[in-house]
Amino acid sequence: MKKLGASFRDPSGFLFTRDDVLYRQVNQVYAPDYARLMDSGLYEKLVKAGLLVPHTESDAKPADEKNAFKVLRPERVPFISYPYEWSFSQLKDAALATLSIQKRALKYGLSLKDASAYNIQFFNGKPALVDTLSFETYQEGEPWAAYRQFCQHFLAPLALMAARDVRLGQMLRIYIDGIPLDLASRLLPARTRWTFGLYAHIHLHARAQQRYADASLDEARAGRTIKKQALLGLVNSLERAVRKLKWKTKKTEWGDYYEATNYTEAAFAHKKQLVTEWAQRIRPRLVWDLGANTGVFSRLAVGDGYAAAFDVDPLAVEQDWLQVRKEKRKNILPLVLDLTNPSPALGWDNRERESLGQRGPAGLVLALALIHHLAISNNLPFARIAESFAGLGEWLVIEFVPKDDSQVQRLLRSRKDIFGEYTREAFEAAFRDFFKIVETRQVQDSARWMYLMRKKTAKE
Amino acid sequence: MFFLAGPLLFVLTSLPLYLDPSSGSILLQLLIAGLAGAGLFISMSWKRIKRFFGRKVENETEDDDDGDEEEIDKPRSTKLSVHLPAKCPTCGTAVRPNEVKRLDDVTVECQYCGMPIKVHQK
């Protein structure tokens, strides 16, 4: 039995695994709220709308018998992702899902007691709440305790991404409880004070927090209550503020990169065919596409498994997500990731949010048109790349891009060529230390090579 | 602003909050929610007045929106909605007749992605 590192804040219960099965213990303190969630019809409504991850009640032994009320067995999310890995629209969709859940909850006499972005995961191609214990019985007159958290986890990063720079979404990696509102207020352009939503929920909110920093809750409230209609008005106001935020992608510096491919139609088709063939042979449950761009190859490799499509470029990930949404795909999750500095383990004791590696291993790792970026732009020796990839998954489909390729020459244009070792022979030798090369094919109509490799077992 | 304040006689219930809601956030929320609630009330009243005088209300708000997709998908009585496609051709989101912005007689803006949606002509 192992308690999950992220599941400790809420006394209502916690997650644990036993024999690789994920369970959620519900504590006795939460019994009335749980009953209300299940009996009011809200649970069913939310699950049907795809806004809540379903669970079954289990007769498994609780992990903490003294406090236990029930043990639930939630459906598993195929790949856990974090808000600092989401593109703008993914975070926006997660925000809107949270508000939509709150609106429905209020209708059923419940309310969200937290609005953490980490409680949202992508499930069946849509953002859904994973924390069944996030609901509490709504009490007429009570304000929304999670209002601050919603603004910090969702509204502030979205506003910064839309109004200042999309890369500011990465601040969520530093501030685990969302971006402090006084900081968001200082970083946002002055023009954001002229829209009611951002002015009220961020700028004014930051000032109110500062002013009442030392006040007790009772002092601040002075006995005031909030009608349900007004509370719905607040949620609607947040929703409008979120909906209004748009990332104007046209103006970014990445824009034209996608048209700049240097290989022919035939080469592209051959590469697609190889990836499809090899993936069909392996049938991986989990694919990690590193440097996925807009996810063309993720779609070919995914089969009946699940693929996380990582790219460093927020625009590529945004486009991939919009496409996934349009196709109503349930098995591809585009994510922003800088492979040269992947998501670390974060939070208390570094155990609340898992690093990329901890969320593995993948069945198949795709590394297409990537090696030159790692070896040349990031000065990584082949041996280090091979070692790292061996830690990420069992199978590897990797493309070798030779030095005379125009994409590599582009990288070398601005710097001295210190990469004497960048040859196919050196590449193969380095990877053979960690992998068995199963198949090698030259891409038609091109000087690039594709490899299918399998990680060596301890005996090999 | 304090016309929004609720009855002073209200006795504070001590909810077992595990999250720090922050005093400033609670205070601000009381004020904004009061405004937003009042806004909702005014816009609803205004529509009732307009309807009373027989004016068509083109863009009914989601006052009574319970956020149920399956119910929202059904076009309501608004004149515009009967011509609207069910899904936005760009992003595939269900078109919410109450939330799309009307650009002109034949185009609305998707409430989700902001792209224009052509309204079907009868």
Tell me what you see in this structure.
The complex is a heterodimer of chains A (460) and B (122). Chain A has 460 residues and is α/β, with parallel strands linked by helices. Helix content of chain A is 37%, strand content 18%. Chain A contains 15 helices and 16 strands. Chain A has a 7-stranded mixed β-sheet, sandwiched between helices. In chain A, strands 1-2-3-5-4 form a 5-stranded antiparallel β-sheet, with no helix packed on it. A two-stranded antiparallel ribbon of chain A has the order 6-9. In chain A, helix 12 runs parallel beside helix 14 (406-412). Mean pLDDT of chain A is 94; it is low at 251-255. By secondary structure, chain B is mainly α. Chain B folds into 2 domains: 2-52; 66-122, SH3 type barrels. Chain B has 2 helices and 3 strands; from the N terminus they run H-H-E-E-E. Chain B has helices at residues 23-52, 69-72; strands at residues 101-102, 107-109, 116-118. In chain B, strands 1-2-3 form a 3-stranded antiparallel β-sheet, with no helix packed on it. In chain B, a hairpin with a 6-residue loop joins strand 2 and strand 3. Chain B starts with 22 loop residues before the first helix and ends with a strand. Mean pLDDT of chain B is 63; it is low at 1-15 and 59-81. Chains A and B meet through helix 3, helix 4, helix 6, helix 7 and helix 8 of A and helix 1 of B.
The CATH class designation of the largest domain in chain B is Mainly Beta
Low-confidence stretches of chain A: 251-255
- Major β-sheet strand ordering of chain A: 12-11-10-13-14-16-15
The number of helices of chain A is 15
Quickly give the CATH architecture of the largest domain in chain B: Roll
- Measured as a percent range, the helix fraction of chain B is 25-40%
pLDDT average of chain A, as an integer? 94
Outline the fold blueprint:
The complex is a heterodimer of chains A (460) and B (122).
Chain A: E1 2-3, E2 13-18, E3 21-27, H1 31-39, H2 42-48, E4 55-58, E5 68-74, H3 88-107, E6 110-112, E7 120-123, E8 126-129, E9 135-137, H4 147-163, H5 181-187, H6 196-211, H7 217-221, H8 228-244, H9 265-282, E10 286-290, H10 296-301, E11 306-311, H11 314-327, E12 332-336, E13 362-367, H12 371-377, H13 382-392, E14 393-400, H14 406-412, H15 424-432, E15 435-442, E16 449-455
Parallel strand pairs in A: 10-11, 10-13, 11-12, 13-14
Antiparallel strand pairs in A: 1-2, 2-3, 3-5, 4-5, 6-9, 7-8, 14-16, 15-16
Chain B: H1 23-52, H2 69-72, E1 101-102, E2 107-109, E3 116-118
Antiparallel strand pairs in B: 1-2, 2-3
